[in-house]
Design brief:
This protein is mainly beta. About 0% of the residues lie in helices and about 40% in strands. The protein is built from no helices and 10 strands. It is globular.
Length: about 110
């Protein structure tokens, strides 16, 4: 139905290099709920936020070896919490192969 919020997770295939994407939902999505899959190991998956001029504001890296559980870290390898992406917020996502994906979780109603 036109205008209806999708109730299914949305998976984005990454490329070797940058892929333009964004929060596909009309609600806020937490970084910690966005999960890499496929050949997404170590620090080879990255999400960057941009300002209105296209300049990188923040970078987050998937890390699956420094902590008890895989998590997103910042450039200092500190685990990050509380990061959210607004509805439709544009992002660059970086990968190192075409068998990598990130999944945005469907909103809970």
């Amino acid at each position: 139905t036109a205008g209806a919020v999708g109730m299914e997770d949305i998976t984005v295939q990454l490329r070797s290099g940058a892929t333009a994407t964004g929060n596909p939902f009309p609600v806020t999505v937490a970084l910690q709920d966005i999960l890499p899959s496929g050949d997404s190991t170590s620090d080879n998956v990255q999400i960057q936020t941009l300002d209105a001029s296209g300049k990188t504001v923040d970078s987050y890296y998937w890390n699956d070896y420094m902590y008890d559980a895989p998590c997103w870290v910042d450039g200092n390898f500190d685990a990050v919490e509380g990061v959210e992406f607004g509805p439709g917020q544009g992002l660059w996502v970086y990968g190192s192969s075409t068998s990598q994906y990130i999944t945005f979780p469907a909103p809970e109603l």
